[in-house]
Amino acid sequence: MSVNDPISTSESLPQTSSRDSNAPRLAATNYGNQVGLNLGSISNFFVLEDVIHPCVLPIDSSSVSRVTSQLYAKIETARVYHKSKHYVEAKVTLYEVLRASALPADARLAAKYDLARAHFAVSEFSEAAKYFKDVARAHRGQEETANSSLSDSQFWLARSLFNLERYDDASYYLQDFIIGQDQNNAQQLTKGRLWLGLTFERMKLHEEAKEQMESALTMCIEKFGPEHLETLASQHHLANFLYKRRAFYEAYKLLRSVLDVEERLNGPERAEAIKTRCMLALCLAQLGRYSDAEPHLQRVFSRMNSDTNFISNELGEPGLVYYWLGRLALKRDDRDSLEQAVSLFHRALTGLAANKDLEAEFIECQRYLARTMGHQKQFAGAENTLREIIPIIEGTQQGDLVASYHGLAANLIAQHKVVEAKVTLERLVSTRTPIEHCRHTGEDLAACLHLLGTIYYELERFQDARDCFQRIVDVPAIGPNHHHNSSRFWLGRAFYELQELEHARKHFTIAYEVERQQIRSEGHYYIQSWLGWTLCDLELFDEAEPNLTPMLAFMSQPEKKPSPRSDFILGRSHYTLGRVAIHRNNFHGAIEQFQSAQPMLARCFRLNHHLYLECRYHLAFSYTRLRKYDDARSTFQELLNNDCQHTAIQNIRSILVPYWLCEISIAQVKYDDGITYGRKALEAWGNESSYRGVFRREAQMALARCLERREIEECRQLIQQAIKDEPSDTDKESEWYVTSRGVLARSLLRCKRYEEACETFKLLIPAAEARYGYDHWLCSSSRAYLADCLGELGRWSEAEPLVIHAAAHQAPDPGTFHSLVKAIGNFWVGRRAFNRRQFKEAEVRFQTARSEWGSLRTKTWESRIFECRHFLARIHHQEKRYNDACVLLEELAQQQYEAGYLSEAVDSQYYLGLSLHAQNKLDAANVAFQKITDLEHDGKSVENAVSASHYYRGHCFYCTKDFKTAKTHFELALERPLDSSLRIRPHYYLTRVFYELKMYDEAITQVKSMVETKPTNSWWIFGCHYWSGRSHIALKNWPDARTHLQLAYDMTIGKIKWQDASDCRHFLGQALFATRDYAAAKNHFQALHSTPGNLSKKLLGNSYYLGCCLLELGEVEPARKILAESLIKLKKDPSNKLGQMSTRFQLDRCLHRLGMCETAERGLENVRSFFESRSADGDPTVVLVEYELGLIARKHLQWERAADLFQQALIKHETFHEKDSMLDVLACKSHLGYTFFTLKRYEEALHLFQQVLEGRKESIEPPHRDIINAQRDVSRTLFEMKDFAQAAPLVKEALEWEEQVSGPEDPACLPIRLLLGEILNGLSDFEQAVEVLSKAALQCQATKSDPKALNAEHEVSCYVLLSHALLQVGRAPEAKGYALKALELDADILQKGSEASGVSAEVLELLQKPKQAAVTEDEQPALPSSEQADTSSLAAHPSSSGQEQDTQQDSQLASSPVPDNVEPGDTTVHVSAKAKTEIEDSPTAENERSTSSA
Is 909 in contact with 917 (CB distance < 8 Å)? Predict the structure, then answer.
């Protein structure tokens, strides 16, 4: 029977037609048929097979027709089919009956009921539910007496829905069924409550299910008695429910009661009792009562073996019996039982495999089979079995996954697949981390963690092992638990391996107490041994020994045979006791213990195991303390060559063994070996202050003692660190203190750390005198050393009494420390005399010191002997005996190099170079200084010898004109510190070198660096500014050049040679000229011009620049004379063609301004040809020449030629650097714009004027005359282009600025007002035009006497414009008046020989026409074409706002040109060509233009 099928279709129909009988059914023959056992799984349950009652049809013969009678007969036939289990025939028959229309309602309802039960019998539950529902609905509306046989249709409807898994609907109908039953109908009520409980169970309403089943059982007991079949069936159902809910004990009690009744009623061997007994045994097994379950299982097993039919027909599934019998056999854990268990598990698997409902039991059986195979050491088979079931467990969440993984890992470990086992356990632990509820059963998650921890421990991953064991220990065990205590012991072992000894001690102590007092096993001896070893490592030796002796006594019992475990425990215990003996300074006893431990540890482990090697180390240490150095050295050497990688052995091998070998080497006076071992020990030393009682400072001291005579700097560092690590309460009179300070002080002295050495000697001397006495050799030598330190520090006042006392010291025997004291004293007395320039006394003292040190016959003081010779040579140098000094210094330097005294050798080499340089032997001096620069090592007394040598080498190269090499050395000199006496010199000469190499920017930068040194000497200050100015001139940075040269010139007054002052003045004049300070420049050049022979050769002399200054200042004729004289002088030197042509250019400019334009033009053409031929890339002077030619062409009204020349000048200017071409670009563009304007190329002119305006605004802020003129030019051009709207705001703004600059009534405002009036007329804004022009007319009348006033033509223009505007606004009389004034002025102009304009006459004629009404602004008539022409002719040419400048050029300098000054904003009306020519050529016009130029 399927687990989920509550009814077997073959047993669902009634065996009797009795429906209403309530009599107890106790017959044994009926018991087995009505109670079926299903051992499916944990969800097993018993099913009560109820009877579906057939309907009793009421038959009234008087009303039964023949057709009805036939239908009743068919119904009875269908019932016969049903009883004989021919359900299909019954269904067919009933369907035929139901199709007849003559069937009465009651009979039709009964037929539906029978049809429903036929469908139910063949498991057609949907059809059954349909008809049962119809019957139940029809029956609900009838009286109970009418069809009482149909009253259970609602119950069977619920049963059908139950089988359809529609549990909610089933529960509804069952509850309704129970409510509708008579409370006295116990059978129906118990049946309804029982199935309601089963339905609630399927709905997982377990509390409600239990309540209904218990209610049904209680009702059965009350109504039928405890032994009634209904009661027993209810007990089975409830027991099965409790079994599924794992309430095994309650299920066991119910089954125990049922079994007692069954055995008493039917006998113990009947099938019913055997099946109940089997269920009872399963409950006992689940409760862990294996001893109680086993007899029942054996009886069931015997019946199964004796009756094979019982298995298939009655029991159903024997696999569970075999499974539990196998588990019971496994618990006995002997060979025969294991074989029996394997057989039982295999038989169980055969039976369980076929039943899907028993999948969980099948998996558990496989797991226990694997465990049994593991006990039989069939590890591979066990592994394969577990690997098969683990995926199933993970997929279905059935079975004990943790236990399976634990078993798999254990079998992998047994096969030495440790890594695979580790991975398996790590995956399990990471996915199932909570272990708070573990019971430490040996197979739960805690056991997995324990097993993983042991794997980590064996892999020496002690931290991971500690974490695993710690998690187990953190979950307290319920009562004494061997598994939990074992994990604590392993946790202690992990802590021990991690050297966390206090934690290890804690856990070993707890584990020992639990094992000894609660578990009471011999394992406490083993734990106690680990505790003793831990205490020993904690250096609690007195506590360690009592924990070690019990194990020695226990293991020495006769029955205890040697084993690997005993070797481990005894060997380690002997080793630990040896360490206890060392602690007690019992080295002989320690050697005995270590010698006993060695063979045991060797057997237990291997020769390179860390415990064995540690034992060997302590044995060698004991030999060392007993001064058995040879035995100790051989043992230590053996340890040194071992390759064990254990942490403890690495420390021993890399630190402790080298340290003790160093100490042994010192004892055996093998310092080289000691240095090797000592360095090795300290190189491997970590952050710890000590290892196993050896302090770092002791190792440092040992190495320092070996290094004192060899590597003094390392010795100093080591001894300093050792002293730093000493305890703060060290006795200052102890041997350690005196010895360590003595070594430190001497090492500091030899390392030239004199300040520190001095302080250390001051601490040492009182301590040494207190310990050894004043006259002890250590005290005398320490005082001499202190004097040596003070002398090196230059503290003569402190050193003097000490050195005098030392110099007078009497040495009883040469070559002793007394000779050393005397040598030190004489050396420093000689140094004092040398500094006082008492060279005779100094020479005697140095000779004495040299002799005393020589008698010591040691190289320790060799450097001092060299110093004596060095100072003897310097005495020769100071007395200017340079040849003798050179001989001594050359020999001494070579010897010092060879001996390795580099600083002292550098001193000698440096003074050798100075001696050669003093003799002007530059090549030899260069070679001498080169040795120093190649060595790159400073001297002892000459601290900055390298940089100083680079300076002197640079000076040698500078003197020989090798500027590039000199530059390199001067730069190298500046990269290092220099003495104050030399600090400024490399800067100065490097500046000179940069200038010579034309690296002017670098020269300027160098001067800045030189100024930062703040020189005090006037020559150096002058040189800074002079060469900076020269460099700025070369770069054409004229303002900066002017600043620096002015500062330099100020320094020359009374301080600098007159030749240098004249040079400075000349170049200052150039800078002033270039910055257009022509007056100041003129003064300088005038002064130089008046002083003949004051300058070295220059390309262009003072006369040239004086002439240029006069030209720019407007003194044209004097300029011409001076330039002409200069040109005559230059022609005497044919090679100076450039000077001649430059002077010719300036002379032609003079001729141009003197009105000799043709001569000037011819000369300029020649100049242009010369400069164009100088270079294929052109010459910037050509730009200035073409600009000057353009001015001449414009003056001759050659507009096209002027435009070409100005354009060429601008184009060529772009090809040169801004500093190379001195063209005034804005002035040139202004002239070119004026030319375009004259040629009526207004768009091009506008573009240029706009550029000029933008350029003016970038360089100066408005209001400014240049900006006003430029903006007026733009406005006038826009006017000519009829763009009045854009022109109006510009000219208004220009007028506002002019009024701010000159005043509202100044004549300079008049041209702008006239232009504004014209523009307003063009905009038809006649009212405002009248206002502006009226003001202009008043200004014309008021300023006639002003020399700056405009000429008559401007006044005519003003009146004409005003009359025109008045006419447009209807003010004809006023317009007529102004027209008459214009006419009168025009006539005056004609009388003076000028051509009249005729405009006034036209305006007057216009006014004399017939009267016409005033024209409004919207109805303005168009002017006649002639009038338009006349009006348009009122526009004058725009001004040229740039200022004409003359240009001069030499190889270094070219001045900015000054453009011709045409009157800006000229508004002259109708000037004839003849008159215009006269105006352009007249000096008056030229002067007027100059007056109004920017």
Answer: no
The 10s digit of each residue's pLDDT in 666-713 is 888 888 899 999 989 988 888 888 888 788 888 888 888 888 877 888
What's the pLDDT at 1444?
Answer: 36
Contact between residue 1330 and residue 1365 where contact means Cβ atoms under 8 Å apart: yes
For the four alpha carbons of 649, 651, 657 and 660, in that order, the dihedral sign comes to negative
Tokens of residue 504, six digits: 């290890």
Q: What's the rounded Cα separation, in Å, for the pair 187 and 199?
A: 18
**1053 neighbors 1041 (Cβ within 8 angstroms):** no
Q: Which pLDDT belongs to residue 112? A: 87
In this predicted structure, what is the pLDDT of residue 445? 79
Beta-sheet pairing, 690-691 with 47-48: unpaired
Longest dimension (CA), the chain: 177
Tell me: pLDDT of 1394 over 70.
no
What is the residue type of 761? F
Q: Does residue 748 contact residue 756 with C-beta atoms inside 8 Å?
A: yes
Q: What's the CA gap between 509 and 805, in Å, rounded?
A: 70
Rounded to an integer, what distance in angstroms lies between the CA atom of residue 353 and that of residue 357?
10
Query: Residue 710 corresponds to which amino acid?
Result: R
In the chain the first and final C-alpha atoms are separated, in Å, by 124
Q: For residues 130 and 120, give the distance between their C-alpha atoms in angstroms, rounded to a whole number.
A: 11
At 576, list the tokens: 């630990």
Q: Looking at this protein, which amino acid is placed at residue 662?
A: C
Q: Is 731 exposed, middle or buried (0-12, 13-18, 19+ CB in 10 A)?
A: exposed
What is the number of H-type helices and E-type strands within the chain?
71, 4
Average pLDDT, the chain: 79
What SS3 string covers 483-552?
HHHHHHHHHHHHHHHCCCHHHHHHHHHHHHHHHHHHHCCCHHHHHHHHHHHHHHHCCCHHHHHHHHHHHH
C-alpha to C-alpha distance for 1436 and 1314, rounded to whole angstroms: 10
Picking from 1360, 1350, 1375, the residue whose alpha carbon sits closest to that of residue 1468 is 1350
What is residue 1395's DSSP assignment? P
- The candidate with the shortest Cα–Cα distance to 510, out of 565, 469, 568, is 469
Q: Is the pLDDT of residue 1067 over 80?
A: yes
User: In the predicted model, is pLDDT for residue 56 greater than 60?
Assistant: no
Query: 1279-1312 as b/e, with b when 16 or more CB fall inside 10 Å?
Result: bbeebbeebbebbbbbbbbbbebbeeeebbbbbb
* pLDDT computed for residue 758 by the predictor: 92
SS3 1426: helix
State yes or no: pLDDT of 10 exceeds 50: no
Helix (H, G, I), strand (E, B) or coil at 691: strand
> What pLDDT score does 91 carry?
87
Helix (H, G, I), strand (E, B) or coil at 1352: helix
Question: Which pLDDT band, with edges at 50, 70 and 90, does 1410 fall under?
Answer: very low
What's the pLDDT at 272?
67
Yes or no: say if 617 and 657 are a contact pair by the CB < 8 Å rule.
Answer: yes
Query: Please, which residues have CB within 8 angstroms of residue 536's CB and are 6 or more apart in sequence?
Result: 544, 576, 579, 580
Instruction: Report how far residue 589's alpha carbon sits from residue 1287's, in angstroms, rounded to the nearest whole number.
Output: 121
Model pTM? 0.44
pLDDT tens profile 894-939 = 888 888 888 888 889 888 998 888 888 888 988 998 888 888 888 8
Instruction: Report yes or no: 336 and 293 within 8 Å, Cβ to Cβ.
Output: no
Task: Using the predicted structure, report yes or no on whether residue 1031 has a pLDDT greater than 80.
Answer: yes
In DSSP notation, 607-668 reads TT-HHHHHHHHHHHHHHHHTT-HHHHHHHHHHHHT-----HHHHHIIIIIHHHHHHHHHHHT
- Which structure tokens are listed for 930? 């080169």
Beta bridge partners of 274: none
């862990």: which residue's tokens?
288
